[in-house]
Amino acid sequence: MIRNIGILVFGAEITAAPTYSQDLSRYREFQLGTNLPAVAKQIRVKPSDAKAIHERPAMIQELEWRAPLLVITKLSALLETFDSEPAAISSFYLHVWARQQGRWRLVAGSSTRIEQTKP
Prior knowledge:
Shape: elongated
Number of domains: 2
Number of helices: 2
Strand order of the largest sheet: 5-6-7
Structural class: alpha+beta
Largest sheet: 3 strands, antiparallel
Strand content: 35-45%
Helix content: 10-25%
Low-confidence stretches: 4-14
Radius of gyration: 27 Å
């Protein structure tokens, strides 16, 4: 009895896989099957920088590149009065932006509160 329930639950998990379709001919902003000069132009490198990985039965070439990143850091201070006492709150921000599909997107961010030391 317990064995049959286990098989039924396992079978339900397998059939519950998503049924949406994916465009497997694309990877990020690249169309699979595009020729080397077109890809090199898209990522702004020289086609001669490509390394041959395989030559038979088909030519496979590799281009190394890094996506352009923008790192923004900021130190901010907020001065306020709380219960008639001056208060200062300082924070350090770090944001990392990457250019993806022709647009800048925030890919990582953090902020850290900096504690004030009392004299």
